[in-house]
């Protein structure tokens, strides 16, 4: 029996859904039949078939207005993917309190604000709703240079389990711990295509994820196929990161055998 993800008739909000990983998620949800709304602080061109609204997800009033606009336009809200996030490289000793506050606000507090606003709608719907938080492998390992980001993502994983308990049975809440993903900015971010290729050789599956692969996991968690999945964190990292000592040791041995 074929198992298909069908989100026809469902209204989805993807924060930061016009670019990068968010765009891949939006594309997959659209193909599954969902009505998709993306949001961001600036104008952007979402995938064909989606609409884009302005919102600062760190601001509660802006978030409330966003959710109200979606419900006014579509009559409901069935799925939220809290994807907005990220952080530039900055050593913790050098970064300002304002910098840390912004990083934690974008990667943790914003997801709580959007989830709260969505939950108020979903709790009134007979079919309830689903919330998917886009977290990171940085939640579970050291994150030097992005310490506040890693701490925020660890908080997001913890938030996921708590909201699942508070808001069930009407609303399911899950997270995806995302590993390395290829985006149009990957080469610039990691220092060129050669460096990206070297990094990919350390991943068990031999490559970084495509953004749409993250979308596939999000679509599954939003679908009826995951009707009994809540409070879960799904690892989507291609097999995980090779321990540094093992990578160094293997390369040392390769050098000795040349």
Number of strands: 9
Largest sheet: 7 strands, parallel
What is the second-level CATH architecture? 3-Layer(aba) Sandwich
Shape: globular
CATH topology name: Rossmann fold
Number of helices: 8
Strand residue percentage = 15-25%
- The separation of the N and C termini measures 52 Å
CATH classification class: Alpha Beta
Strand order of the largest sheet: 3-2-1-4-5-6-9
Mean pLDDT: 94
**Poorly predicted tracts of residues:** none
Structural class per helix/strand content? alpha/beta
Query: Helical content, roughly?
Result: 40-55%
CATH superfamily grouping: NAD(P)-binding Rossmann-like Domain
Defining traits:
8 helices, globular, two-stranded parallel ribbon, alpha/beta, 258 residues, Rossmann fold
